[in-house]
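Subject: Predicted fold for Acetyl esterase, 302 residues

User T.R. writes:
Posting the sequence so we have a shared reference for the thread.
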Amino acid sequence: MLKLIAANIIRAIPDKASGRSMIDFETVREVKEVLLEVEERTIHLSFYYPLLSINEPLPAYINLHGGAFIMNNKDMDDPYCRYLANHARTVVVNVNYSKAPETPFPGALEECYQVIQWLRRNGSALGIDTRKIAVGGQSSGGNLAAALCLLLKKRREKQPLLQVLSVPMLDFVTPHADKPEPDPLRAKYPQAAGFLNACYVPTIEQASNPLASPVLAADVSGLAPALIVSGENDAFRPEIERYSDKLKRAKVQVRYELFKDCTHTFMNTGPEKEAAAAWNIIASELHRGFYPSSFFKTHRPS
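User M.O. replies:
I've generated the structure tokens; pasting them so everyone works from the same file.
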């Protein structure tokens, strides 16, 4: 009960990324709302269809928003879903997964698994090429995307075409006090991050599960190719680079992009130039994965 009260207080604090976007708002052809009923749960999905693409079926990108597993919802990524739909020429499936502490690990992960399974079975009715599905997210969403690929491997099921891991939190075992936190307040009070973590993984056994802490996975061979985005001054940078190196050692194709002088939240809060470049890179990698014979020009901050 105390966790839930504290979580609701945190949710009431205005998010720095709320109501702002690092890229221009774009019109898409359609946003279709779908309620997916699975195992006595309702998962709200938004399908973004690209404006200039009328030929179907289209590939699909499953987007998982950030928020430390306990806060925010899919709407915070609305401008980015629009951008990716138009520039990667894909249907973006924006997922409103359940939050902790009401739904601790592995609840949100199992929901993500249900979403990709449902898309593979039913996506053609929504204009989706079910052979071309990618998955990704930011922060906690990046964790879920990485964990979903590990879960699919564990269950011996098909990998997505690409996993996009943007500033992912990948290690629940290392105390936040031992991570290079650049924010003075968070560095002084690592207990706050510890509370957030405990909402999602209440026990050390859960925290140590590779499906919660992907960096601990013993075998990552055969996972989907990865695009990994990190900020130079992100407290999670060491675990992000450990996971990137682990994937590379297992012969998984990895593109790792490090943005200098950027913190954990840069893709939502800036600097705007670097944030826009990161979203452009994601769009280009999705486009390249979905349309390997096409060309997509990327830009980087000068």
